[in-house]
Amino acid sequence: MDSAALIVREKEPLNVESPACVLDSFLTPNDLFFIRNHFPIPRLNPESYRLRVDGAVADPLRISYEELRAMPSRTSTVTLECAGNGRSFLQPRKSGVPWELGAIGTAEWTGVPLAHLLRRAGVDDGAVAVFVEGADRGEPTNDPKPDGEIAFARTLPIEKAQEPDVLLAYRMNARDLTPEHGFPVRAIVPGYYGMASVKWITHIEVLREWPRGYWETSEYSYWDAAEGRPIVRPLDKIRVKSAIVRPRMHEIVRPNMGYRVTGAAWSGTSEIAKVELSVDGGETWNVARLLDASRRYAWRRWEYEWRTPAQSRMCVLLSRARDSTGATQPDHHDANYGSYAINYTLPVEVFVRSSMRSSGIRTESISGRVENLVGETLL
Amino acid sequence: MDSAALIVREKEPLNVESPACVLDSFLTPNDLFFIRNHFPIPRLNPESYRLRVDGAVADPLRISYEELRAMPSRTSTVTLECAGNGRSFLQPRKSGVPWELGAIGTAEWTGVPLAHLLRRAGVDDGAVAVFVEGADRGEPTNDPKPDGEIAFARTLPIEKAQEPDVLLAYRMNARDLTPEHGFPVRAIVPGYYGMASVKWITHIEVLREWPRGYWETSEYSYWDAAEGRPIVRPLDKIRVKSAIVRPRMHEIVRPNMGYRVTGAAWSGTSEIAKVELSVDGGETWNVARLLDASRRYAWRRWEYEWRTPAQSRMCVLLSRARDSTGATQPDHHDANYGSYAINYTLPVEVFVRSSMRSSGIRTESISGRVENLVGETLL
After folding, report:
1. B342 lies in a domain?
2. Mean pLDDT across the stretch A300-328?
């Protein structure tokens, strides 16, 4: 994990994002895949590793790494997006890891369906949830927080946990997981934000009621105001979103030329139906061409042939995706999601100029940090 | 509410604490009673005022102020303590209103038992909780928080709501409530921290399940680690506590004299069984004399005759209360309570000196802010 192309956002615990160019590749190379940790990376020994499955089950299980790898496996292509992806663009600034565009990636994950283990253990009729716990432990950071160390964990509705694509994965793009990505075994929960895909899983507990733990209330939660009074709920499905990969923020392009705008679009448990691009700040919209076949849990790349204006000027580009349920990206961030689920249409300012020499643009701005420039734009 | 003796901790919303000397009086005068607001004080018109009682009931009610005052009433003597009382002494400093000793007071409250209205409305068999909402609205301050304005509200377990001492009060020490204290009608929930005694009540809703609102998770919550994994719970009962009123922090007392140490002690739904005083930083403990008769929901004042040392020195005084359930004040703040329920034994440093002239104590320290001095002491 020493690829120079990765962008370190936090060193302890290690939080690293991909360069935005990974969105131009359908499968993200393992060594360019973003890494999101809450605590120090645990180093587990595959010989002594055991996965416990207990709680509201008929026959609790205790499974070794070798036993798991001998079980029937499945490979799924799944896009994982961190719930805080794009946080650095929020105005005003929010605390949390300052991700830009690259806390997202797509890989082929191989592992044992969680449903297989749940069937073997025999889930009780009254079960409502499955608690999935990692081996990573530490003191949480968001208030309100419990005292002392806790393990990273996440709870899935029992129906979701029993879907065939929810995996206990041990391979990523045909290679064994590395410690950074959850060796020996991690969850892959397709369609949910990345926090559900718990790494270093050592314990799965079937529950008869929903927990009210730190990871369901203080962190990775949102406010559901639909029923009159807002109630706190754990984050789950990835919301429909697209990103412009090319041009980059404040890129300079030549006038009156063909320019291929590229990007990607995704939506948690739905498929991308349409991507539109605006080159005039949202006044008018043009349909972009979708490149990849539609798959339920993977992003689709798109492109749009832009004829740049004949005159020097600044253009504001926006992309907007719609999914098969009709959900469309909003214009603004929904404050009920705090610093998560950031899926509003993000403006990309581009300078149309015949040459650098005549641009009058301060070049130090162009080499500045993208989020600062975007920040100015949004003010 | 312009008493010069009150100490303003926050102006908008208004948050005001009592001088510590109120703990020396069994009943707290209305104009010295602490005021805790979350939002601007609503000014309600008693003519148009209506209290709605609905939700899981057979017959929803809509009651005027006049009708409420015509119902059978009850008067209870109840100590209210703000859940953040003593917060300013915490090390490291915590955000929130920086209360010292005086976010507490005792009054005789007159009103209609909530149980009376619940009986009239006819509570459904499946009801588990009663949601009590005030007319005050605003944007909450703690993360995670919902977007926009919400009303202050609090939820009581159905059993608690049906206790005869839980009142919809309209009088405080025989006077009609003032706007600052909840005119026209406020809850009095004996034994619970003050946040449960919702002011300006306009809506009561009987619920079939516990809500997961802002006031049950982000603010006025604590972490219950008893069942293995910490879960967030709404604060409820006042924890056993005592305070030393005299001497004050860094007071100078004469050697070899009789000195009457005074204070108060209280515990939510239990009675105070014993108060002990240490004059040697907790090495040895002496039983203090309890002054007031024991009442379930009111504090008890206490005193202890201290023979000061013959030699000049610094003494650390500590008081420690025990209640009828055997619960005793802890030595340290429980971090699972965040910046609430601060009931550890708080050291009071006292200088024994024959005269100021020979004390060698910087007098500017003595006139400094108490919490700074206590802060240094605790480091």
Report:
1. no
2. 97
| pLDDT tens for each residue of B329-379 | 999 999 999 999 999 999 999 999 986 554 444 433 333 333 333 323 322
Residues of the domain holding B306: 241-328+347-378
Contacts of A148 in chain B (CB under 8 A): 335
- Among A142, A146, A221, the residue with its CB nearest the CB of B223 is A146
My answer on whether B268 and B365 are in the same domain is yes
Quick check: is B341 in a domain? no
Q: Are B131 and B153 in contact (CB under 8 A)?
A: yes
CB contact under 8 A, B221 and A144: yes
Pick the residue from chain A with its C-alpha nearest to B339: A144
Pairwise CB contact (< 8 Å): B230 & A213: yes
**Can you give the pLDDT at residue A359?**
41
SS3 A68: helix
- The residue out of B174, B202, B234 marking a domain boundary is B234
Task: Indicate the residue among A191, A212, A234 that finishes a domain.
Answer: A234
Question: How distant is the Cα of B93 from the closest Cα of chain A, in angstroms?
Answer: 14
Q: Based on the fold, state whether residues A226 and A102 are members of the same structural domain.
A: yes
- Judge whether A19 and A5 are in contact, CB under 8 Å: yes
Residues 215-274, chain A: which have Cβ within 8 Å of B?
Answer: 217-218, 221-223, 225, 229-233
Span B5-12, average pLDDT:
90
Q: Are A165 and A116 in contact (CB under 8 A)?
A: no
- Rounded mean pLDDT of B82-91? 96
Q: Is the ipTM beyond the 0.90 threshold?
A: no
One domain for residues B221 and B291: no
* Predicted local confidence at residue B228, as pLDDT: 81
| Separation of alpha carbons B86 and B80, rounded Å | 14
Give the pLDDT band (50/70/90) at residue A369. very low
Task: Look up residue A276 and give its two tokens.
Answer: 């539109």
Does A54 reach chain B within 8 Å, measured CB to CB?
no
Distance, CA of A286 to CA of A306 (rounded, Å): 10
Instruction: Tell me how long chain A is.
Output: 379
A183 min Cα distance to partner chain B (Å): 24
Asked whether B114 and B130 are in contact (CB, 8 A), the reply is: yes
The pLDDT of residue A3 = 58
Whole-structure pTM value: 0.85
Instruction: Select the residue of B214, B225, B334 nearest A230 (Cβ to Cβ).
Output: B214
- Report the mean per-residue pLDDT for chain B: 92
